[in-house]
Structure formats: C-alpha cells, structure tokens
Amino acid sequence: IAKNAGKNRYHLFDPEGDRKAQFHRSYLELLTQALTNHEFVLYYQPKVDLRDGHIIGAEALIRWAHPERGILPPSEFLSYIHGSQLDQKLGEWVIRQALTQGEIWHRQGLLLSISVNISADHLVQQDFSEHLAFALSQHPDMPPQCFELEVLETAAIADIEQAVTILQTCRQLGVHFSLDDFGTGYSSLTYLRKLPIDTLKIDQSFVRDMLQDNDDLGIVEGVIRLAKAFRREVIAEGVETLAHGAALLDLGCHLAQGYGIARPMPADEFEIWAQKWYAERLWLHLKNIGPA
Ligand code: C2E
Ligand code: MG
Ligand code: MG
Ligand code: MG
C-alpha cells in the first residue's frame, strides 16, 4: 500500500509545474495591484493616409509603467492575464481610457479615430456590448463612428457565428471593427464575407519583408485586392521605412501605420508629433524615394 501511495504521490507532485503555477498566480496578483495603482498607460501610434499625410487615427497600445522596471510592453504581461478575471477588467479600462483621450482630442479639434485591441475572451463576455454602450454614453463628445475595435483574425474565426452576432450588436452602436494581424489566421473567403468588419489590417510580418521577399509581396498584394473586392478598407501595419510606404501606395494601399511614420507614444508626445508631422510635411518625401 505504502509503495502505491508513494507512486501516486510521485505522479501528483510536479514541483516544476507547481512553481510555474505559483509564479503565474503571484504575477497575476501584481498585475491586479498595478491596475488599482494606475500603473497602466496607453501609448498611441498614428495611422496616416500616405497620399496627403492626413493623420486618420491612432491605435491605443497598453504599457505597464512599472515602478522599478520602467515601461513594459504587452509581451511582458498580457499572456498572464489571458483567461483570468483581469482580462475583462483591464479591457474595460482600456476602452474607458481610450474614449477619455479620444474625447479630449475631439474637443481640441484633433478629430482622430481611436482604435483599441480587444482580447478574444473579453469580446465574448455576455455583457460586452452593454458595457461598450455605457462607456460610449459617458463620452458624448467622442463619436462612436470614431471608435474602432481591433479584433485578431484568429479570435474572430474561432467561433464565427458568435463573432458575427457580437460584431453586429456593437456596430449598431456606431463603432467600427478591424481584423488585426490579417493573413496569419487562415480565414476562408466565406468567413471574411460573413464578418461585419470595416478594415483589414495586413499583418506586419508580411509588410516588413515585402521589399525583399516576393512571396510576402504577393500576400500584401493579395490582401489589398481582397479588401477591394469585399469593399473593406485596408491598412498596412509594420511600415518601417518610407520605401515600404511608397511601395504600398503603388499597390493601392494608402493607409499605413509603423515605426517609419512614428512609434507608439504617450498622448502628450503624440500631440507634439502631430504638429511636427504636419509642419514638416514628412510624407512628401515618399515621392522622392519611389517604390523599390
Ligand atoms: P497589434 O495590435 O498587432 O499592434 C501592433 C504592434 O506592433 C505593437 O506592439 C506596435 O508597437 C508594433 N509595431 C507598430 N509598428 C511597428 C513597426 O513598424 N515595426 C515593428 N517591428 N513593430 C511595430 P505592442 O504595443 O508591443 O503590442 C503587441 C500586441 O499586444 C498588439 O499587437 C496587440 O495584439 C496586443 N495589445 C496591445 N495593447 C493591447 C490592449 O490594450 N489590449 C489587448 N487585449 N491587447 C493589446
Ligand atoms: Mg492592433
Ligand atoms: Mg497587428
Ligand atoms: Mg500582433
């Protein structure tokens, strides 16, 4: 009997897995504390129309302003949140915060469309659309038409019928949807047709290599054509150089976002950047470079 019990204990006790689970739990507690302590901030990355330099909007990207470790990107902490209660809480904070900032900018005459990233788990919460409706009602000077939800292609197609229902309900509030990291989720044309989304965001992995890799160039070209055929907007993310921008313009994609235009930055820096961008008319240099 003792031998058997020992064996069982051996199977049940997994010190390595236990340590990991404990670390995960305590990290999650830290993150919950961080939300209470207002340590999360949103950075904003511009989205521009390369034809005339117009800043059409900004994507809100979360950062953790850690008291000792400094500004931490989502790759440092988002995976710990997935599947926990904090996922929805943090997601709701992001929505409120982005609406607050968007409303401030609208009141100043900076009429930007603001987008936020919505996790798959948060999107399928029972009361998602009610919370969104309430948040929008709290920010009357931020038009819902200027608020956009970015949903990962993989999340949207995980349960397509459910996604269609939620997206339709939210769209009745006026908000827009984009499909993030498009091209990485293997969605079929049937899915794409069914999904009530406004914009395809070409994944940055294809955009980054499109000037050297013909396959990636082909994918970028294909997504642009697909968007046109389905009457969707298309935006390229990961536009790292003006040469990328020029090549995209040549292919008929005029909306762009990426380090080549600007990195994500705090709201006050964004305002300064926007003034400089318009004053120096930086996008005009695209013409001089031309497509690669
Ligand atoms: P994403 O939504 O696809 O956002 C684009 C990511 O690429 C951002 O990373 C951005 O900083 C980065 N990026 C932008 N332009 C360039 C470029 O030219 N080159 C390169 N190499 N990278 C570029 P970030 O901020 O680290 O965010 C990573 C991911 O984390 C996001 O990918 C999004 O899926 C997720 N995320 C960010 N903020 C939130 C949030 O508030 N809620 C949720 N649920 N997810 C978020
Ligand atoms: Mg995004
Ligand atoms: Mg993306
Ligand atoms: Mg991504």
TrEMBL record:
This is EAL domain-containing protein. Residues 24-278 form the EAL domain. It is found in: Membrane. Keywords: ATP-binding, Kinase, Membrane, Nucleotide-binding, Phosphoprotein, Transferase, Transmembrane, Transmembrane helix, Two-component regulatory system. The keyword Nucleotide-binding applies. It comes from the Bacteria.
